[in-house]
């Protein structure tokens, strides 16, 4: 291994370890939201990709709900309750979308609102 390769490896490990939980959450939600939107826009042939992206979104929201339900979570209790409620909403709405009884837009809107919050931007509404 030459010096340049070792430096790149060391820097990439350091950069990854300095990312905040907030940045990691943002990236995860952004990637899943992009996958949902892309699959929906691709039409019926991308339905399996849509189902997988919705499944991953559900898992993400379940993880967030478990995290905010933990008594040691340091977020304000009102914010924890709101995140837990949103998780429940995502679970129900996803089931309705998969049953073709509801639109996908509310799921995308919730994820977009969370991304705005994580990035520190206010709603454009």
How many domains comprise the coordinates? 1
Helix segment tally: 5
Helix content: over 70%
- Structural class call reads mainly alpha
Q: Roughly how many Å is the radius of gyration?
A: 18 Å
Span of the ends, CA to CA:
53 Å
Q: Which stretches are poorly predicted, pLDDT < 50 over at least 5 residues?
A: none
Give the strand tally: 0
Beta percentage is: under 5%
Globular, elongated, flat, extended or rod-shaped: what is the shape?
globular
Average predicted local confidence, pLDDT: 88
Major sheet characteristics? none
Q: In sequence order, what are the helices and strands, one letter per element?
A: HHHHH
Q: Could you please describe the fold and organization of this structure?
A:
The structure is a single chain. The chain has one domain. It is globular, with a radius of gyration of 18 Å. It is mainly alpha-helical and 125 residues long. The mean pLDDT is 88. α2 packs antiparallel against α5 and α3 packs antiparallel against α4 (77-98). 78% of the residues lie in helices and 0% in strands.
List keywords for this structure.
125 residues
Condensed summary:
This protein has helices spanning 3-17, 21-42, 47-69, 77-98, 105-119.
Topology:
Layout lengths: L2 H15 L3 H22 L4 H23 L7 H22 L6 H15 L6
Helix pairs in contact: 2-3, 2-5, 3-4
């Amino acid at each position: 291994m030459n010096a340049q390769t070792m430096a790149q490896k060391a820097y990439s490990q350091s950069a990854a370890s300095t990312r905040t939980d907030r940045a990691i959450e943002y990236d995860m939600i952004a990637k899943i939201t992009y996958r949902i939107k892309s699959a929906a826009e691709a039409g019926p042939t991308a339905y399996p990709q849509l189902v997988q992206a919705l499944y991953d979104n559900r898992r993400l929201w379940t993880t967030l709900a478990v995290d905010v339900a933990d008594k040691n979570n340091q977020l304000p209790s009102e914010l924890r309750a709101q995140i837990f409620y949103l998780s429940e909403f995502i679970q129900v709405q996803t089931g309705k979308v998969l049953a073709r009884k509801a639109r996908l837009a509310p799921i995308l809107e919730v994820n977009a609102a969370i991304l705005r919050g994580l990035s520190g931007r206010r709603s454009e509404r």
